[in-house]
Amino acid sequence: MNTPFEYQDGESFLHRLHPNVKLAWVLLTLLVVLAPYGLNAGSFLGLALWLAFDLACWLAAGLDFRRFWGLFRILLFTFAFLVVSQALLYATGPDLFRIGPLPVKRDGLAFGLLLSLRILVAMSVMPVFISTTSPGKLMAALLRLGIPATPVLMFLSALTFTSTVFEMWQSIVDAQRLRGFDVNAMPLWQRARKGYIPIVVPLVLMLFRKGNDLDIALGTKGIGAVRRPTDLEPVSFGLGEAGFSLALLVMCLVFVAAFSGRLLS
Hints:
two-stranded antiparallel sheet
């Protein structure tokens, strides 16, 4: 089962790129998302340009968009909720129109769209990073930065366990459906009251068993030993990494120019 947060083997430029360069891209994207925004055209333009860069990386990586359809549906529901709630509940700004007694605020609508765009930019980079970076290369790159093995292992386990939880959840749902217990066919109130108990309980037990197996496997592989282990997948920094780093620098400058309004002046 292919999940949105799972490494996908490939030969694209993004797959061959140094993991630390892609990690810098992720961190810069988070800084872009967390920047203090105002309700102006520069904020929308800066985020739109960064999103276009992320989507270009999606295309360059050759990822199958069907793997992310479930994630897209969740995001669309979130965006609709943010836009509608902010448009109806925003306290300031002129009214665009009214829905019965509720005014639809222009600033609230813009704020909801800005929040949605920020979430979309943040979510557009992580699937590319995880899908194009093998755990072996990422571990080797982080260890070369001098990061201790234990935090690196915890970070990689968090990334890989996401897809593991997806797979376990789906296997339990399929097994319960074969036993005549179909949670998806239940009404929403019944599903929330007792529908997920036969799924969550086996999931927790399977995760405990998986964690115990992982602990035994790590002990047999010498994790935590004094000497640094040999890299399974060695990484290097070349012209491709330098070019992508330069493209990131240019994007940062363009974003700052758009954010400050200089591109619109």
